[in-house]
Design brief:
- This protein has helices at 4-11, 61-74, 87-93, 102-123; strands at 24-29, 36-43, 50-58.
- The protein is of the alpha+beta class.
- Helix 1 crosses helix 2 (61-74) and helix 3 packs across helix 4 (102-123).
- The longest helix has 22 residues, at 102-123.
- The protein binds FE2/S2 (inorganic) cluster (2 copies).
- It comes from Jutongia hominis.
Length: 134
């Protein structure tokens, strides 16, 4: 049912935890299942590159695996490039998810967007294409 990559990121998730004094934090809930995801970003002030990214979740295995992959994918990107890390891109990187688990991958994308929004608000900058969290 799950790809090897999903199982790998689920059993050995990368970047679990929190960042003290994070420059951006985003917390979202999944309306479908009630699960929660929080993403922390550490952004370089000058280059706007995401130096560190951590996550915490009360979520299922697919939520853990997608967040783990998503944190790896945004690291090293600028806050502008990070928008390319969509749930679709994350699912592709994981070699797919079962259809019933697709909504779980939205948690990671939404939490990253919420953290980027938080950062942009605090620094008074605009990230083109970024919508405010619901
Ligand atoms: Fe909550 Fe999947 S329904 S963990
Ligand atoms: Fe709730 Fe996966 S995040 S079922």
């Amino acid at each position: 049912m799950y790809s090897e990559k999903v199982m790998d990121h689920f059993t050995n998730p990368r970047n679990v935890g929190e960042i003290e004094d994070a420059s951006g934090v985003g917390t979202v809930g999944n309306a479908k299942c009630g699960d929660i995801m929080r993403i922390y970003l550490d952004v370089d002030e000058d280059t706007k590159v995401i130096k560190d990214c951590k996550f915490k979740t009360f979520g299922c295995g697919a939520a853990v695996a997608t967040s783990s992959m998503a944190t790896e994918m945004v690291m090293g990107k600028t806050i502008y490039e990070a928008l390319q890390v969509t749930n679709k891109a994350v699912m592709e990187a994981l070699d797919g998810l079962p259809p019933v688990k697709v909504h779980c991958s939205l948690l990671a994308e939404e939490a990253i967007h919420a953290a980027l929004w938080d950062y942009a608000q605090k620094h008074n900058i605009e990230i083109e294409g970024l919508k405010p969290p619901k």
